Amino acid sequence: MDQLAAISSGHLRIDLDAIGRNWSALDKISPGTLTGAVVKANGYGLGLEPVAKALAKAGAQFFFVANPEEGLVLRKALPNAHIFILGGLWPGASDLYAAQRMMPMLHSMAMLDEWLNFCVQRGEAYPAALNFDTGMNRLGFRMSDVNWVRQQMQRSGYQPQVIMSHLCCADQQNHEKNRTQLALFQSIMAHFPDTPASLANSAGLMANKANHFQLVRPGIALYGGRAIAGRKNPLTQVVSLEVPILQVRDGKTGETVGYGAEYTLQRDSRIAIISLGYADGFLRSASSSNSHQGARLAINGHLVPVLGKVSMDLVALDVTGFGHNGPVPGEMVEVLGPNVTIDDLADAAGTIGYEILTSLKGRYNRTYFGIELE
């Protein structure tokens, strides 16, 4: 262990083999369909380059990022990858997209006009995707635009690489919105009969084969997160995080713990203070009070509760249950690992696994293991 690792505030380990195995497992769900990979937000907080290389080694060829900056990083890491920019075509950036072989998701008449005009000027039909809004009310052509878009395609002779939409309630498997969006998307497909289609994210892929079409694009499931609410997660945990105990102290009945004095000790207690806080991406909403249970972390396989407010650099844990043989300063606490998943933390913090992962930007010694990367 090098000197920096030895004094690090925490150890974040990322299992690239697990990411590859998760992609392969998802790929098997949709035989005959291309399985892409969403690697936006810096590979869901785990590092865009190593994550993308691990996915490519597993077999992924189609990648989705949020913006052209991420696309440039990905292009450098994977010269032969097929890269889609989910955020669309940045105004005036058509040259960059074409030079770097990045495909914009075209969401509006303005984007489509700019891209088609660029293709005409260059005399080449650079690939792009068409995105239709079937119920998210976020990015995408409206349903009322479908005929206009089709006419533009017929007039220009342009053939999009793929048509897409996005499910907004796929994590709720029986939500009526899923059936509505699927039906609307199928009606759009009828206007573009020779164009490949893509609708399914992780949840859409895992919930219903009717969503698969020609290309699926999993995200959170690749990273071991729960895709469908109320269903056992079949994917492998990808990240583990440990942080050290800085001090173990005694607290007396009636004393309070943390900012705001919102947690009052109901018994004489042993309290472990750990090197972790919201500056490290451990969400403040994981705090506890006497009326609200917060997150639980693990020491030697035993879950222990957070006491009081999460502060910028420190979290207090109740280790009274260990008795006289309790943990000592320097001992490591499992924040994520075999006993605490990203979804366990998310549930405790009132959020989703996506936010837990993308918040892991703290003062950690970050280690990758598994697939050997060049």
Automatic annotation (TrEMBL):
SMART domains: Ala_racemase_C (SM01005). Residues 238-369 form the Alanine racemase C-terminal domain. Belongs to the alanine racemase family. It catalyses: L-alanine = D-alanine. Its EC number is 5.1.1.1. InterPro entries: Ala_racemase, Ala_racemase/Decarboxylase_C, Ala_racemase_C, Ala_racemase_N, Ala_racemase_pyridoxalP-BS, PLP-binding_barrel. The modification N6-(pyridoxal phosphate)lysine is found at residue 40. Keywords: Isomerase, Pyridoxal phosphate. Substrate binds at residues 138, 312. NCBIfam families: alr. HAMAP family: Ala_racemase. Catalyzes the interconversion of L-alanine and D-alanine. May also act on other amino acids. It is an enzyme of class 5 (isomerase). SUPFAM superfamilies: Alanine racemase C-terminal domain-like, PLP-binding barrel. Pathway: Amino-acid biosynthesis; D-alanine biosynthesis; D-alanine from L-alanine: step 1/1. Its cofactor is pyridoxal 5'-phosphate. It comes from Maritalea porphyrae. The active site is at residues 40, 259. This is Alanine racemase. The keyword Isomerase applies.
